[in-house]
Design goal:
The chain is mainly alpha-helical. It folds into 3 domains: about 80 residues, no CATH class; about 80 residues, DNA polymerase, domain 1 (Orthogonal Bundle), CATH 1.10.150; about 180 residues, hpI Integrase, Chain A (Orthogonal Bundle), CATH 1.10.443. It contains 19 helices and 7 strands. The strands form 3 sheets. The protein has a 3-stranded antiparallel beta sheet. A two-stranded antiparallel sheet has the order 3-4.
Amino acid sequence: MQQWAKEADADPFMAARELTKATGLPLDEALDSTLRAENYKPQERERLLLGLYDKADLEKQGLEATLSQSEEAKLEEVKSDIRPWSEWVTERCLLEEVTASTVTNWRSKLKQLSEWYGSSIVGTMTRKQASAYKLHMVHKKMKPNTILNYIGAFNGFWNYAINNGEITGENIWEGQKKNLPKPKKRQPLDPQLLESAETQAEQHGDVRFWLGRYQGLRKEDYCGLRWCDLDMNIGVMHLKRYEWNGQKRNLKLKEGGERTIPIHSKLIQKIRLMLPEALTRNDNEPIWPKDYKSHLENWGSKWATSFTKNYGFGSHDLRSYVVTQMMLQNINPYYLHAITGHTVPGTSKVVLGYVAPTLDQVREVLELLE
């Protein structure tokens, strides 16, 4: 963010915008002044200044502003009252409860968009340019799911700016998900590959493999566990948000992700063998304190990377495996929600409260998983 601020300070276009606001100097005079200060040649200054005027008026005079996309974006930036994308992110962080990983994700996507567009004020983009960026992502061989994720993020920021009165008119990202290639369905985990991975996990004493294998949780759910979160006496684990020595433990569904769930009997055996301290420790220290990325406020990233190298598939595939096995047994979706945290489409929090199964009922269902 400091680098973006430095670039804005050195940018003659942004400097002209600020000069106009501060002094009331006409925009064309301010831009001419800041371009001179940056040693732009007279012909370049004249060409760029033409871009400030209405195209129809220029045509009547037999004139045309020949500009690159980046230059057009910069000139729109000068004329607009829309703020840079970095200020949108900063403001949303103040207003909303978002994790560090979400903020990093937003910044990465918007920075890529602004670099392609040629301006940090992406709110001046047109629908045609939004479509062009979608094609740009396709040409870069980005996966359909990734493109959909990008468009979804942009759509959210445009809605935010429109609701705040910063952008007038339509949301240029509405409808941009149409006509994209259909995302490939996640392939079921190969039984032989799983069997081989189980053998390796047994040899390596990788208890986190078995947490994924028998509970179907997200890696952040079990990699961020504290000793006190495992109650081996009654066979339950507590998923809680917390902060320990500056390390923040987030959950995917925030407070909705906080819950107590039974531990599969086979997993209890693995924990007793591979994590014997869980039988005696009950303190607030995380079990794997070194596997934490502070800039993302994320647990388990290092382990997940080594997991893929060791086993030949991703840790999330274990979650998919558990969900698939339960669905094949026609498990009630409310039980699935209680175990894995999967949302039940079209169900409100109030309804979920009414139909929430008991701990014993969830345990009975969980034990159906082989």
